Every structure is written in structure tokens, then in C-alpha cells.
Amino acid sequence: MAPSKNIEVKGTVMFAQHAHIDLTSSTRRSPRLLELTAKPTPFYRYKINLQDEKLVIWVENQTTKLQWSTGQLNKCDYVTTMNTIHQFSIEDYVELFEDTLNCELSDTSSTQRSLSEIDNGALKLELSANIRFPRSTSVVKYVFVLAPVKVDRIDVLESKLLDQEEVTKQIKERNDAAPAFIQLKAEMKDDNSNLIWEEIDADDFVSDGEDGIVQFRRPGVYNIGGVVNTAACGREENFELLINGEIVQTYYPASLGQRYSSTTLCYIARLEEDDELTIAADCALYDTSHLSVMRLGS
């Protein structure tokens, strides 16, 4: 029989709210039972560790920083004749426990979890799941008792640091989900009179920095803006905004006797994946031109 793997999984979880024991009273030896209130259910950080076939489940209240642990458990400590699953390895049970902790907390979910306070400040963790067999469905339930863990000051500091890291990660994820936006510069034209926009390879846009094409990688409504700076143009000279090679806007720069002209772009349209944007100019360029593209909405 092959030895079990060493596994560690962790995450953050909420539990179904139960009547609970007040641990804030002056003496923890005689805690008092309270009725359910509308207080927000706290989040818990959890960790499941399997090493040398010994299972440890640890949880921490993210608000109070109190911690609890099962200590090392053998398989027989949590798997009984009532909840054993045929041909399940220890690793399979760990995966089942992780799925139960990560699932949506709803009445219709096929997996459920709850955490309640019991005597002497301990917690009772209950995990249940519907296991489907070829001709039936069975509900299996696993119960763990987690004893309080002494928390040192350094443990609290480490936990607060983890909280900050998680907040930073959430902010980054929100920023990553923000509307797609780019700003590009051009100082030259190619042989086809297209302004050569600088190279970019992003999730939503791509430009190779050579042919003047800005390609869209995601469909949506886009706001296209910018400023094209050209040398003084003749009356018949202009520059054009093209989508997939077709002219959608034409601009006639007005130099007003100056050596150069600055013309503002403004165009809003729905574009599809792989659509291409180019700007072609008859006039010579003057200094640096700018292009900004932003996807509107989510």
C-alpha cells in the first residue's frame, strides 16, 4: 500500500450560524448560552494539514484572532461505519473536506458546514455532503472537536499581516476587473501612411509597434480618443480613423497659419474581437501623437 501524500490546503470561510456560547464573560469556566442574534457571522481562516496520515484541522476567527485546532487525528477518529465511503483514500477525504468548506453556503447546496461553540471554549465543526451512488444518494457527516490554541503576540501579528495581504489581493483583483484602457504614442508613419503606435501586448489589446494596427481582443463598446499632431496641411490633406480598413471618420486639421496643428479624436462604437484600428495621415507628423482607448462597462 502506497504511503499517503503530505497535503496542506487553506482558505477563508463562513459557517452556518448556530446558537453560541459567550466567551466574553469574565470567567470562561462557566460560559452562558445566548440566543441567536442578528450579529454578522464572522469569517474564519482555515487550514487542513495531512502529514504521515495524521490529519489536523485549524481555524482562526479573523475578527478576534482566536484559534482552534483538532490536534493530530488518525483516520479512525473521524471516519466511522456511518460515514465511511467505499474506496476513499485519506487524500480523498481531505479533498471532500476542502470542497465542503469552499462550497456556497445555502439550503440547496449538496454540501453543508457549521461551526458551534461547546464547553470549555472548544468548537464543534460539522461537515456533511450528499454522496451519489448509482441507485441512491447518501448523506455523510463528519464531526470534529477543535480545542482552543494559545495565541502568542507574534501569531496575532502574522494573522494581521495575512489580512492585509488578502485585502491587497482583493484590491488587485478589482483593479484587474476594471474597464480595459490603454494609452499609446506615435511619432512616425509607415509606408501606408499609418501612424505607428508603440508596441503593447495586453489582455484586451495588441499592437506590434510596426504596422500601426491596434487589435481588440475583447468585444464591447469602446471610447476612442486622442490627439494627432501634424505639420501644417494643405487644403486637401487630412487624416482618417479606420476600423478594419474602412474609414469611419475623416479629420481636416486647421493650422491657422501655424507650423503645426493639433486635432482631437472622439469616436464611440461597438467593436468585436479581432477588429483592427488604424489612423492614416496625409500630412506629415509633428512631435508626438496620442491615442487612448477605453472599454465602456464591464
UniProtKB/TrEMBL annotation:
Protein name, as recorded: Uncharacterized protein
Superkingdom of source: Eukaryota
Species annotation: Phytophthora fragariae
